[in-house]
Design goal:
- Keywords: Membrane, Transmembrane, Transmembrane helix.
- InterPro entries: FAD/NAD-bd_sf (IPR036188).
- The protein has a domain of 103 residues: FAD/NAD(P)-binding domain, CATH 3.50.50.
- The N and C termini lie far apart (93 Å).
- Helix 2 runs parallel beside helix 5.
- The strands form two sheets. It has a three-stranded parallel beta sheet, covered by helices on one side. It has a three-stranded antiparallel beta sheet with strand order 3-5-4.
- Strand 4 and strand 5 form a beta hairpin.
- It has 162 residues and is α/β, with parallel strands linked by helices.
- 54% of the residues lie in helices and 20% in strands.
- The protein has five helices and six strands.
Length: 162
């Protein structure tokens, strides 16, 4: 026979179990709501953080800056301007020598030195500036599918353009 005290203890245990279950469920629900709101707000912040970038000059530095901007994932629209036409850029006879640190940096941006005209000497890569620029322009051309990229060669920067 069950005593009144045993029934009281059993009833209290059921109440505590129900309270523990309700507490665990509400905590789980609160954490789930927090995660959903945080992920949504982070996504909105990242979407709003995208910027338009204008690079004036399509020399080795300008084109490398363009690749860095594209790689950042924060670029909505990229425009590269240079008053020289493509033929003037690519016919430059000067040489460029890239040291090992520069080569490592450019490899991270997707530059494949095995598919670029040039030569190696003492861990340095040597090529013509025009060849280097053409290669970087080709990488930017490939990225046009994902980002709005406009390379406007033969365009002088002026207040009318801006």
């Amino acid at each position: 026979m069950e005593s009144t005290g045993d029934r009281f203890n059993s009833s209290m245990e059921e109440k505590y179990r129900a309270l523990a279950y309700d507490t665990a469920l509400s905590t789980l629900l609160a954490v789930l709501v927090y995660v959903v709101v945080k992920v949504s707000l982070d996504g909105i912040r990242q979407w709003r953080a995208r910027v338009s970038v204008l690079i004036v000059g399509s020399g080795p530095v300008g084109l490398t800056a363009a690749l860095v901007a594209v790689r950042s994932g924060k670029v909505l629209k990229l425009t590269v301007l240079d008053e020289r036409y493509r033929t003037a850029l690519l016919c430059r006879p000067q040489q460029i020598a890239l040291d090992p640190r520069s080569v490592k940096f450019l490899l991270g941006l997707g530059v494949d030195f095995d598919n670029m005209e040039g030569c190696w000497h003492n861990d340095h890569f040597f090529t013509k500036i025009g060849v280097f620029q053409e290669y970087l322009l080709s990488i930017l051309e490939q990225k046009k599918q994902k980002i709005d990229i406009k390379v406007r060669l033969g365009t002088k920067v002026s207040s009318v353009f801006l």
